[in-house]
Amino acid sequence: MSDFKSxxxxxxxxxxxxxxxxxxxxLTDEPLRTIGYVLWKASKELDAEAMxxxxxxxxxxxxxxxxxxxxxMKLVDVILIPTSKSLSHTDSRRRASKKGVRIAxxxxxxxxxMVRTLNADYKKIxxxxxxxxxxxxxxxxxxxxxxxxxxxxxxxEGRAGHADTGINHNPGDFSNLPAGxxxxxxxxxxxxxxxxxxxxxxxxxxxxxxEIRILIKDGFATEIKGGRAxxxxxxxxxxxxxxxxxxxxxxxxxNEKAIVAGNVLEDEKAIGTVHIAFGDNKSMGGSIxxxxxxxxxxxxxxxxxxxxxxxxxxxxxxx
Length: 319
Description:
alpha+beta; Thermophilic metalloprotease-like; 2 domains; eight-stranded antiparallel sheet; 8 helices; 20 strands; 30% strand; globular
């Protein structure tokens, strides 16, 4: 079996726990048609009632799928979603999860990423991710600093941390694949400081020899500076209005196989990074609903939760 087919089998068997006879929907679009097909075939080989549906590519991350697909999503047991734009933060995905459907989204995944990251030790990833989620749940304030100038505070009191473990065996379980992060939605309108995005940015890719400087005030990105990457980021966010600039998510990567190569799906899972997202946070316990969710990856951060260091220059402290 090729490494690509093996990765697909790990996704459907180990990560999703697909059983014979379960109804499985593989939802894809033209750019990721090959990925969708190999996941469909792997599901079929487990004797699942596997369906492959291709839709027109969405225009932006978080844009809803067609109404007929949205309805279908609520009627199956398992969904894998390899698409060029993410459906993770759509109402359609949230409604299906609420119905008990087990779901994994794989936005913009490539064959190379599948082979590299789905062969990770997901038991260890699960432990790390749950540890971070618990620290966030019990915390009140996060501070992040880097040598390049990031210095931002993100209040999280009362919010629940979440673990993206990649193990979706129970009704309603949801994760990315590849998985590997602990994350939380900071309180709206309360974060302040400066973020230097120096790893990668959704919609842009890897930031080689370039940085995006984002000023955060009262929970919104109020100033975005840098070169061409900063200009492009603003052009992506502006059409969605002020809510697209909301500080939506803080996450810490926990997948030892993931690297920062320019695809945020993988980049944000890499150990030694944090990511901060802007836009919709409804999926993670927040109150902002907007058709945009964009993650920016910060390299080698030092992270404090309520004054206690949990990461020093990208290295975990005490776990």
